[in-house]
Model the fold of this input.
Amino acid sequence: MHYNSIERSNNELPKKNMPTSELRVQNLKIAFSSNGEEQVAVRGISYHLNQGETLALVGESGCGKTVSALSILRLIPQPPGKILDGKILFGKDDLLKLPAKELRERRGRDIAMIFQDPMTCLNPVLTVGEQIIETLLRHTAITRTAARKKTIELLRQVDIPSPQQKLDQYPHQLSGGMRQRAMIAMAVSCSPRVLIADEPTTALDVLVQAQILDLLAQLKEETLMSILLITHDLGVVAEIAQRVLVMYAGEIVESGPVQGLFRKPLHPYTTGLMNSVPTLEHNQEKIHRLSEISGTVPSLSQTPPGCPFHPRCPSAEAQCRTEKPVLKEATPGHTVSCWLNQ
Amino acid sequence: MASSVKISDPVLLQARNLKKYFSAESSNYSRSSQTVRALDGVSFTLREGETLGLVGESGCGKSTAARTVLRLTEPTAGEVYFRGQNLFELSHNDLRSLRKEMQIIFQDPYASLNPRKRVRDILEEPFDIHRFVNGKERNERVAWLMERVGLSADQGEKYPHEFSGGQLQRVGIARAIALHPRLVVADEPVSALDVSIRAQVINLLLDLKESMAISYLFISHDMAVVRHFCDRIAVMYLGKIVELANSTQLYSTPQHPYTEALLQAIPRMDPGSKKQRLKVRGDLPSAIDPPKGCAFQTRCPISEKRCEESIPPLKEIGSGHHAACFLRN
Done:
């Protein structure tokens, strides 16, 4: 049997005494105006991304995970978007205050991003190679010939077969998985310190998803970059992340190392999410019904008072309806904002 | 569930050697037309009260199969029998009256429900078309339907855009069950929904199956959802069924290397676990120019010479367990 045993040394924190933070987000608040009304999408979140780790930002649609990630590179259109408050510290610089020209230097060189749909990221009228070469020429001191050579090398590194030919093809000539690989090649071309991956495998079939997750894990190993992974898929989180932030209605409701959080989720929302996913681990005899979280995610304009999850929470008490819980450390490194679990 | 359906139960739906070819122009400037073999000889049986899953990656033909068995699209070849009647030989009128008994739920409720109609009007439409009931009774039926799928009757005055995705999918389900169908084809009914809502909708579909005696043909790319939902499962690859077995057999002893790879590729909610994976190369080949021999041969980690030379037939290898692989037969 030609099995390929995959051993990833992730799921373990870097073996240093104190991991250094690549990126620190402090009290980030983002709003969008629609019909003259300001709706807050991200309600003051703080987190850090350590060097060489994969941090997953998990939540359902509308929880603010993508918006908060886009804001790191100031990719939110303003207006209608508006960053109300907060800092995003990369080294000594606050990315939110950096002059546009300097930020442009950093995009792609220090911090790169990959998206769910490669067609929204790749330029359809330029060949794949041209786009990667352009990135290299923009950010590194390199000749055109050398850039072309490096691009072939990059395409080979992301497992694109016959890279010499693929280089001169246009995005539409590649399959979905190949486009995703080309986009990853472009993102890692300048050896960024941080890679922001927004639902990188959501549009892919499961076999290709497994290949791309392996590729991301392997690139992280080789380059020691940090990955901020935005996803709704808890399986993907368990597969490649070391730490998790769970977001609900624009706030972080739980965060912690992936093993602790999956073994013992503390927030009722996290527990609910985990239980509502059908898994292959469920034992042979099928459970007739899945456990579900009742109700729906509140809209931005109607976030409930108190704990935002209380209308859907099976164990909500009087305090949850009126007072807002704050994130507190329950066990070392594992924080939760829930009155019942602190 | 899996045990509740017996071989002796009457057959509700039977597809025999179903083929559907589309012609694809290679480009706007070329006159040579090519053929996409979306369905290339698919046969299966669905018994009363059973849920049959059709799984596979995008482009494997599962949605084409869903549409063809309802005769929403005409097949290139093959037959579909619904309670013994060949759908493709029925007249327009006969087919129309038979449609009461076979309904479909689509993936995206925003695309499948008319945005300019109130939900109440959307739900009245099946009764109008099939001239089922009079005005007063119709209102009662609509109210009953809405409550049956977990909505309140007064929400009928709203338009589709005023609902969330999960609620709107409930409307889509209400429309499908309005006329008490025997068969519901569910084409990726939960794929567009958020995780917490997905479980609600799956539970609703399971409840309806029990209370209204519905049989489902359930189309999905999600192996975990399918396992939870289906009695029997057919795995499709490039227009063909490569494995067909009951749910327990398929998940515990998959026979086709493609099925095995699919199962192993699902991310597990178990951080830190080391896993063994069949290494599958590359992407899905084009259905315009499928590989010679076994369609999976180009990506298969265990393929041999004979896999390139001829097409393995779907063979029964155990009780009710079929697979199309030379090496596992």
